[in-house]
Amino acid sequence: MKLLYTLLALLLTFVASAQQNPQYSQYIFNSMAINPAYTGSKQVLNFNAFHRSQWASVEGAPTTSSLLVDGLVAKNRLGVGLDISRDKIGALTNLSAYANVAARVPLSEGATLSLGVAPGFIQRSMNGNELGIMDDPSIPTGNQTALQPDVKLGMYFNTSRFYAGVSASNLLQFSDNMALTTHRHYFFTSGYVFDLSSSLKFKPSVLVKEDFNAPANVDLNAFLLIKEILWLGSSYRTSMNLFNDNPATDARNRTAVALIGELHVNRSFRLGYAYDVMLNDFRGVSTHEISVGYYLFGKKDAPMLTPQYF
């Protein structure tokens, strides 16, 4: 019963605020999902598809799917991309689409600073029939839809071994006719790749997600790259009050650990999987996430321009 109450509280918070952004454990393999300045950083035409089934055994729990495509134009000085996502929890569905553009400025050999913008829209739909409450006149029936513009901004710096980025989403704040509101979200990411041996590399990284309305989400990640083919690692996700004091929010409700892997099947094709487990009342309720990626080089013998560590 306690688990049920916890789930209902989380779902109601999720729906009432509507401030969620699509969440993935495998963002470390393509950060364009959280930072438009990352667009074009792979330096090839890059396709990524993600699907996340959160709390898989719970009816009405969140599911998220995304398709991301990006590449370079203008003599590799401009990254362009497309980011389409569908996020559903219970009766609420968010469909978003963004056109990403990133200007890439070489600072020195191997070091690049990118500035990105992603204008787009979010379509929110609420299907009152899926709520299962038919005798309450305050609960709408049928499907209600609201379409709102949005924009993301970001900055990204990387060398062949180090990266750091800051970004912001939901910059056009609004309330719609379904009494749903958005809040700006801010992201900071950084990581570094160390050589442990000729065939083994170690990549620690961090992601901080902040909206200044609740405790910040913090991801601590550690990965091994084996023979430039297989990524294996783990992510620890928790919450903490970094810039505000909100003792009423139980940060433990957002603490989880993820086991993540990505296999480079060949030069172009990649497969990824993540298994998340909550470290609270949701123990035993698992989350599954799969990803598929493809590099399109153009010329058959075209080399990778930089090591694909980020």
Characterise this structure:
The chain has a 14-stranded antiparallel barrel. It has a single domain (2-296), classed as Beta Barrel (Porin), CATH 2.40.160. β10 and β11 (216-226) form a beta hairpin. It has one helix at residues 2-17; strands at 45-53, 63-73, 78-89, 92-108, 111-127, 143-158, 162-169, 185-192, 194-197, 200-210, 216-226, 230-240, 256-264, 269-278, 286-296. It is mainly beta and 310 residues long. It is 5% helix and 53% strand. It is globular, with a radius of gyration of 20 Å. Residues 1-19 have low confidence and may be disordered.
Unreliable spans: 1-19
Radius of gyration: 20 Å
Category from helices, strands and their pairing? mainly beta
**How many independent structural domains?**
1
What is the CATH T-level topology?
Answer: Porin
The largest pleated sheet is described as: 14 strands, antiparallel, barrel
Report the principal-axis shape.
globular
Per DSSP E runs of 2 or more residues, the count of β-strands stands at 15
CATH domain class name = Mainly Beta
Order of helices and strands: HEEEEEEEEEEEEEEE
Helix content: under 10%
Task: State which percent range the strand residues make up.
Answer: over 45%
